[in-house]
Amino acid sequence: MQIKKFKVKSIKEAMERIKEEMGEDAFILSDKQITEKGEKWIEIIAAVERESAYPPFRTSPAIVKIKDDEGKKIKELANIVKMVDEFRTQELNIEPLKEEIKDIKELIKKSFHKSDNFDFSGKFYDIYRYLLNEGVSESIANKIVKIMDYQIPIKYRDNYDYLKSFLWKTVYSALPDVKVIDGSRKQIIAFVGPTGVGKTTTIAKLSANYYLGEQKKVALISVDNYRIGAQEQLKTYASLIGIPFALANDKDELKKYLKMFADYDLIFIDTTGRKPDKDSLLRDAEFLDIKGVEKLLVLSATTKSIDLLKIMELYKILNPTSIIFTKMDETFNYGNVFNTIINSKKSLSFWTTGQKVPEDIEIASSQKLTNLLLRSIKNGSS
Ligand SMILES: Nc1nc2c(ncn2[C@@H]2O[C@H](COP(=O)(O)OP(=O)(O)OP(=O)(O)O)[C@@H](O)[C@H]2O)c(=O)[nH]1
Ligand SMILES: [Mg+2]
Fold first, then answer.
1. Gap from CA of 193 to ligand 2 centroid (Å)
2. Dihedral sign for Cα atoms in the order 226, 227, 232, 237
3. Is residue 346 in some structural domain?
4. Structure pTM?
5. Mean pLDDT of the chain
């Protein structure tokens, strides 16, 4: 890894110099504001390694970045790399599956509302156990295997490769389409979610990517006046990226700033992280009930399934349009993410894969989530 220090006036200038001097693959390791002889500068440390980190929304799965010296984890990493390769092939070959996937989607729509239990045996039971081990809830695992049980003809029931490929299609088909921020239309998005999940960091990542990468006009508003200094975090990011920032102390101020930024493509609103309780969420819902403001729910992939379920239930008050999952790099188990998407019927938009701003964010992908969930399913006959 090659590392270099830069002293610049804005992140934009830094990005240009880094690109020029270190190449397309370089990325920012750290940034801090410094003052020299009364003049303000930003000191940037940039690095370059094999993996491409910028421009935005890397397509390589989050998990590949995990580093650990322990043999077990290295083995796991090797499996994941293999999975990534498989994923790439699957992604290329998905076109011919489209009709089949449409049929399965229909079937899922009908059967996911029924909840009768089934006894599975043989390979169907292995698949059911695998899903439970990955953190998929009993009722969802039951429904998936039931669909397989109904659909798979007798001649294929012992063919493990056929079962695996059918399972892949069933899991994939159960996921709603991904909904990304569409840079082609004006959007005002309030990021809501529990304390410490990564709302502010995610806003910084998206702002940098849409402003520097996609050349969109982005403005930030914080309504986080609840904790002392909370808005400073977003303000610092705004000044590093080179975009405007405002702090709204009440709803009237928020409306005033929305008017002020009326000609911006994207306005991101950072909200106070709260312990999810109904009364404070009702207050947030009232505060954010302004024409044109949509809500994006930020959740952490490290939260237990049962808690995610309760959080989702509570945040229904805010009617979020889609979900961002953060900290995908901190988990090895994706059943909770899958359960949340299936139960809430909400689309995923992005997921984040580390603490680095702006690079640790990706557009979510149903294919990748399916692969992550099924990455360790046994090969061949069992
Ligand atoms: N490992 C990892 N850490 C993350 C990720 N996203 C955010 N974090 C870290 O999570 C911590 C909390 O991030 P914030 O952005 O301040 O979270 P927040 O939701 O705004 O917090 P509150 O405003 O207090 O509710 C910080 O240390 C971030 O660096 C991620 O994808 N992976
Ligand atoms: Mg915050």
1. 10
2. negative
3. yes
4. 0.73
5. 81
The ligand 1 atom at the shortest distance from the C-alpha of residue 271 is 23
The two structure tokens encoding residue 174 = 């159960």
| Rounded-to-integer distance, Cα 289 and Cα 287, Å | 6
Which residue from 35, 18, 34 is spatially nearest to 26, judged by alpha carbons?
18
Domain co-membership, 20 together with 121? no
Residue 52 has pLDDT above 80, yes or no: no
Lowest-confidence pick of 98-112, 116-130, 195-209: 98-112
Q: CA nearest 221: which of 256, 254, 262? A: 254
Q: Does the pLDDT at position 329 exceed 90?
A: yes
Q: Quick check: is 61 in a domain?
A: no
pLDDT of residue 110: 57
CA distance 54 to 213: 9
pLDDT digits (tens, 9 = 90+) for 136-150: 999 999 999 988 888
In DSSP notation, 275-309 reads: ---HHHHHHHHHHT--TTEEEEEEEETTS-HHHHH
The CA-atom distances, in angstroms, between 370 and each of 116, 169, 212, 245 are: 25, 9, 31, 38
Are residues 298 and 195 located together in one domain of the fold? yes
Q: How many domains does the chain have?
A: 3
Cα-to-centroid distance, 200 and ligand 1 (Å)? 7
* Residue 202: domain span: 187-364
The reply to whether ligand 1 has any atom less than 6 angstroms from the CB of 358 is: no
Both 161 and 296 in one domain: the answer is: no
